[in-house]
Amino acid sequence: MGKKLAKLIGKEGSFKCHYGSYYGIYNKFDVVIKYDYTSLIYNTYFSIDGKLNVDKLNDELQKIDKYAIAKYKNNNLTITQSCDRLKDMPELANKILKKVTDFLNKNNCKNVCKNCHKNNETSLISIDDNIMYYCNDCYKNTLKKYEDEIKKNKSIKENIPSGIIGAIVGAIPGLIIWLLLSYLMINPSVIALIIMFGSAYGYKLFAKSMKLPGLIISLFIGFAIVYFANNLSNSYTLYNEYFNQYKINIIDTYKALPYYLNNSTLFKSSYNQNLLLSLMFALFGGFTNIGIYRGYLANNKIKKVVIK
Amino acid sequence: MKRSSKLLILGIICIILSGCSLPFQSSKYPSWSTKGILEGYTLSNGKIVGGWLGAQIGEKIVANSYTFVVNKIEEIKSYNGYNVQENKKLIHAQIEITNTTDKDIYVYDNDFALVWDLDKEDKNYQYSMDPFTDTMLKNELIIEHGQTKSFDTVYEIDKSIDKPMAIYYFEQINGQKGNEYYIYFK
Predict the structure, then answer these.
(1) Which of A114, A186, A190, B30 is most buried, by CB atoms within 10 Å?
(2) Residues pairing with A304 in the sheet
(3) Which residues of chain A does B27 touch, with a Cβ-Cβ cutoff of 8 Å?
(4) What is the ipTM of this complex?
(5) Who among A213, A245, A252 is closest to B7 (CB)?
């Protein structure tokens, strides 16, 4: 579907589709078109340099599509249009592309590199899976900077014992908020996000780096503390239920959790629901750990791309 | 050391660490002390009956006819020359009782049984062994008005029976159902 639609944009074969976005050159301007299925609008992006009267451009656009809006900021021109069906998009886009590029040429606007905003020859490059038009100089500079960062990251030695302490220390603020919400009788499951976030940044801060062992350790510690926190809040629930009848404190109810899990269906159901919800939030929070780890990955994430 | 071995060791350490979040937890009956008699009802004379009470070793229990304390419960190998049989174990309790009524009261040899399976409706139990010393609980032991007496109870039970257990006393008031008392051994 995407490839077929790409053929309909611009001159035959000048646009290519890559993961739902369309890339191509129209009247010497680099163009990126992205369609959003949720809002049913699509944006057309240009990188240009020159004196552009965006109000005048909007007036021109109104003549062909009253819902088209142009915005211009920091050399980036964005045209937003609504389009109920993706298959109608090429026809609308072609009209807009012609109108906009004619207007840009008429106003002596030049196509520029998205990074340095200079009128150099550009090519498509992928930076961490984001595809954009960069000039050759910017590509080389970005690549060098990235390679230097990789070297620097490789040279940093990961201090695992400190990292373990860091992950535990980092998760403590989340644990405190968790207990506070439990005390206020508010479901604290969402705080699992903060616990995971804290364990990830705590590990990174103390270990000075996060490689694969760090990722595993910080995830384990994060999940273990979420599990521990869920046990504590359920102990508090038990304590509230029984402290009038028994001479107990929260440590007693914490110790007795397995007994109540084995013997009370109602308690087990509530415990499991809270645990499942907490672990789901923790899973989302775990993306923080993965994000930090990816920052230390020694993979070349910058490359020139050819979209077929 | 190979990288994969290092990761395996780290993984094991992490699992152990996550296990630290479960210190001292137990699926056994909690054996908590109660704040007074639970599940009882009050008679017109103000006495609470039909309920139960949980207490710890050394805790003074005020029953309707007397007060008593289980001073000690322990597992022993032999008692006054009696050696435990094979695949059995001996549990020894030392109980002190004070008559708080204005008349003599009796304690029987089937009082103060040792019970286990505390979380079950039908709990298992064992009475104290027949007395073979003066210090052991004997049938129809008389405790006079205001008098305090100490005695031992010794139970021989299967070796596989584990804690928590309890010394159990079922109180009767003038032949009517009273309260149940559990003194936990955990």
Answers:
(1) B30
(2) A125
(3) 258-259, 261-262
(4) 0.79
(5) A213
